[in-house]
Specification:
Blueprint lengths: L18 E12 L2 E12 L3 E6 L5 H8 L7 E6 L8 H4 L3 E4 L11 H11 L19 H8 L3 H9 L15 H13 L5 E5 L7 H16 L3 E5 L3 H7 L2 E6 L2 E6 L1 H8 L2 E7 L17 E4 L2 E7 L8 H16 L4 E6 L3 H11 L2
Parallel strand pairs: 3-7, 3-8, 5-6, 6-7
Antiparallel strand pairs: 1-2, 1-4, 8-9, 10-12, 10-13, 11-12
Helix pairs in contact: 3-5, 4-5, 5-6, 9-11
The chain binds adenosine-5'-triphosphate.
Pfam family, one: ABC_tran
GO molecular function: ATP binding
Protein name: ABC transporter ATP-binding protein
Length: about 350
């Protein structure tokens, strides 16, 4: 089992800035089982922070504590400087929540659902827009009047791409359209902080991209966003910073660049035949070769030791020197940058 990275908690570098979310040493137990075992991070105003992790890592549990749905067993949690459980009434109107599974009433129409939700919101007076201005998106007035739906509701539906479904019953929506309705409800009160728990699960690629655009626009408008996702591409595209969780702990964190740099470049080549054993292969500092046999022997190293800027260069020089001495040629010699998926697999694999 790899020791978790012992560094400053994510966001420590921004301490002192206007942190909208602060989590310090969070622990959360379900009976005897500790699902979150000491998680710390902070999210400054206007930033999008993504929580990634293996199944059961504790992402939803962490987010549920921040949303005020459960009191932490240990540690401290603040959202907009407030205690999500103890000061829930003050906090609730300023926060938008998109749960993993929204509980809808199937017989209501989409517009009725938004209207009902709007009525429940304590801060329903302001129209929803992307940029934080007070005008609803162009066109919502016309279509809204046609459907008999007010501007605020129409604004939320347009934002989620559901304006043509205003009169459709919720049970007739597809899975992806329900997720979009979830999003409309989460942003109806123009929240300062938005919690998005796997927002694009079940969406087709086009709807996913449209949702990413909505999230990006909200962030540009100043909304602070905490996102959980299993789609690494989603995190890569949207996140200012991210953390990868496994078994209740954060194991890697930073900007996408920083996390990917930790994943290490990959150097690979092919040797003819299938007679090679580990003893015959060149040694590289800190990188054990991985062998794959086909018609030839594929050899791959993941480089994690040395300066990231030059370690691939040094590894290749070493490999070529080795090949020269042996009179071999390294077929298909290739270097590729580490990816977020490599970093994720390292956390998921090595920790076990
Ligand atoms: N209400 C509960 N009672 C008991 N155990 C729970 C409860 N909710 C979650 N757990 C357990 O806590 C752990 C963390 O669950 P959580 O849902 O937070 O993980 P996650 O990272 O969101 O997972 P996934 O990516 O699969 O959605 C899991 O082992 C889960 O089985």
């Amino acid at each position: 089992m790899r020791t978790p990275q012992v560094t400053d908690p994510p966001g420590a570098a921004t301490a002192g800035l206007d942190n909208v979310i602060e989590v310090g040493g969070l622990r959360q137990a379900y009976g005897d089982f500790e699902a979150v075992r000491g998680v710390s991070f902070s999210v400054p105003r206007g930033e999008l922070f993504a929580l990634l992790g293996t199944n059961g890592a504790g992402k939803t549990t962490t987010v549920e504590v921040l949303e005020g749905f459960r009191a932490a067993t240990g540690g401290t949690v603040r959202v907009l400087g407030l205690d999500p459980v103890g000061q829930r009434r003050q906090l609730r109107p300023r926060v938008g929540i998109m749960l993993q599974e929204g509980g809808f009433i199937g017989d209501l129409t989409v517009a009725e659902t938004v209207g009902l939700w709007k009525g429940l919101s304590e801060d329903a007076g302001r129209p929803v827009t992307l940029s934080g201005t007070t005008e609803p998106p162009a066109g919502s007035g016309l279509l809204g009047r046609f459907w008999g739906v007010d501007r605020q509701t129409m604004g939320a539906l347009e934002l989620a791409g559901l304006e043509r479904k205003a009169r459709t019953k919720v049970r007739q929506l597809s899975g992806g359209q329900r997720r979009r309705l979830d999003l409309a409800l989460a942003v109806i009160s123009r929240p300062e902080v938005l919690f998005l728990d796997e927002p694009t699960t079940g969406m087709d690629p086009e709807a996913r991209r449209a949702t990413w655009k909505v999230i990006e626009d909200l962030r540009v408008g100043g909304t602070t966003v905490l996102l959980t996702t299993h789609y690494l591409e989603e995190a890569e595209r949207l996140a200012d910073r991210l953390a990868i969780m496994h078994e209740g702990l954060i194991h890697l964190h930073g900007t996408v660049e920083e996390v990917v740099a930790g994943a290490g470049d990959r150097v690979s080549f092919r040797l003819p035949g299938i007679t090679w054993s580990f003893d015959d292969l060149p040694r590289l500092d800190g990188a054990a070769p991985v062998l794959t046999y086909g018609g030839a022997t594929e050899v791959a190293y993941t480089l994690t030791v040395g300066r990231p800027e030059t370690r691939a260069h040094e590894a290749v020089r070493h490999l070529l020197a080795w090949a020269d001495v042996r009179g071999e040629s390294l077929e298909r010699l290739a270097v590729r940058r580490g990816t977020l998926e490599d970093a994720f697999m390292r956390v998921a694999g090595e920790v076990e």
